[in-house]
Amino acid sequence: MSARSFRWAVAESETANGAQVTRLEYARARSHAFFQFDRCRHRHYALYAWGNGEACEEHFVGSWPQ
């Protein structure tokens, strides 16, 4: 995978009504994948999907400074 295959985007938060969060998307026509960076219950939270978007996982992750 090339770094050029990814792009930064903005998405609606899955946990905070009306908030927008950053999302790193894999930009290929046949494959849809993303990592979405969010917050839930005052903790860092990540949502990610790959393939056609049906396989989706979510996890509380460690801290990141910004």
Could you describe the 3D structure shown?
By secondary structure, the protein is mostly beta strands. The protein has one domain (3-60). The chain is 0% helix and 58% strand. It is built from no helices and five strands. It has strands spanning 6-12, 20-27, 32-40, 43-50, 55-60. The protein has a five-stranded antiparallel sheet, with no helix packed on it. A hairpin with a 2-residue loop joins strand 3 and strand 4 (43-50). The protein is globular, with a radius of gyration of 12 Å. The protein starts with 5 loop residues before the first strand and ends in a 6-residue tail after the last strand.
Based on the model shown, name its key terms:
globular; mainly beta; 5 strands; five-stranded antiparallel beta sheet; 66 residues
